[in-house]
Amino acid sequence: MSGTLYLIPVPLGTDTLASVIPADVLATAQRLTHFIVEAPKTARAFLKEFGTPHELRSLWMEELNEHTKEDALSALLKPLLDGHDVGLMSEAGCPGVADPGANLIRLAHRKGIKVAPLVGPSSILLALMGAGANGQKFRFNGYIPSQDPARLEAIRQLENDSYRNKQAELMIETPYRNGALFDALLLGLKGSTQLTVACDLTTSNELMLSKTVADWKSGTKPDLHKRPTVFVIYAA
């Protein structure tokens, strides 16, 4: 009988463990000895914070990131097929959402392996909750093009789709590019469109602001330096 692939969420920042990770999720992570992780150094730090009773160096830990080739995924599932429960951990938040773990999860389903998602913080859902946009109809677009004119074209298309379909359009950006994306959003969107900026959610540095583009242009630019950010467009 194969093991279970547990999707283990991790905090979005430091010193927030008790407020964002339920006790039963911690208990599951503490008993596991096999892990597939996006970043081993980050995963070991979180497992130590989770209170794992096992020596960190004794854990079976394999890396899965954006550079992992498709033909390497089957080998990662071998412990599960041998009967071991395995934890899948992202570098932040929930694995499988805007995360390379999705490919592994899909393969696990094809092989008949049980997949068990666990409760934890998702920056995408939290940003949508706080945006005041249409939570009944929304689309997550991941990373849009990072260079113009393709970026501006994508922004204007998302705005058009939001207006036509009355839906929220979400995207995410890395710390070193989010300032440029914010500037491009102000350039490409209409003044009446609602733009939400959300980063470091659930942490002491949390930023959650929603304004029209016109108000953003006339106000102070948010500090997005070195902060992964979710942007929400709502033009309905």
UniProtKB/TrEMBL annotation:
GO terms for molecular function: methyltransferase activity. Coiled coil: none annotated. It comes from the Bacteria. It holds the Pfam family TP_methylase. Residues 4-213 form the Tetrapyrrole methylase domain. Keywords: Cytoplasm, Methyltransferase, rRNA processing, S-adenosyl-L-methionine, Transferase. GO terms for biological process: methylation. Gene3D superfamilies: Cobalt-precorrin-4 Transmethylase, Domain 1, Methyltransferase, Cobalt-precorrin-4 Transmethylase, Domain 2. InterPro entries: 4pyrrol_Mease, 4pyrrol_Methylase_sf, 4pyrrole_Mease_sub1, 4pyrrole_Mease_sub2, rRNA_ssu_MeTfrase_I. The keyword rRNA-binding does not apply. This is SAM-dependent methyltransferase.
